[in-house]
Amino acid sequence: MSKKSQNTTARKSEKFPSKADMLSAGLSCVNFNLRRASRAVTQFYDRELEKAGLTSQRFSLLHTLGATDGLGLAELADLLVLDRTTLIRNLTPLEELGYVADVPSENKRARKVILTPKGLDALRIAYPIWEEAQAAVTEAMGEDDLKRLLKRLNSIVRKRNFKEFSKSES
């Protein structure tokens, strides 16, 4: 019997989880809960940043580029934990608006993007709106809880391989 058919047979013979088992798994699933919380936070910031004509994703790209002298796509994708295709899909509208532009890179084969003066103007408009949204989130969560959450989330991003992840960083 092939390994694939052995796995299929093993799965069929296992007890199907009950509704209570599935509810418990959903409530304790890190992925499910982080994605759910992420959508809630994203929707809040999107509603606020809409006043500046931006989404939270576009704002994140602009302020990340605004904090640098430009970044190569690979470096930007790694920093934002995005695959290259998603990054390009998110950069394209910003390029069309004239907020970001390509610049020569040290590596002639790698693309590098910078924030343009028009992008900086958009960021100047959006930044005070973001500050108000951030203050609302901080107040709702409490500053200490927010600091702990951000520290833990950054630890997760740095590790990315949960086989190496440890509680010692909390």
UniProtKB/TrEMBL annotation:
A GO term, aspect molecular function: DNA-binding transcription factor activity
Annotated keywords: DNA-binding, Transcription, Transcription regulation
SMART domains: HTH_MARR
Pfam families: HTH_27
InterPro entries listed in its UniProt record: HTH_MarR-typ, WH-like_DNA-bd_sf, WH_DNA-bd_sf
Residue ranges the record marks as coiled coil: none
Residues annotated as domain HTH marR-type: 27-158
Protein's name according to its UniProt entry: MarR family transcriptional regulator
Higher taxonomy: Bacteria, Pseudomonadati, Spirochaetota, Spirochaetia, Leptospirales
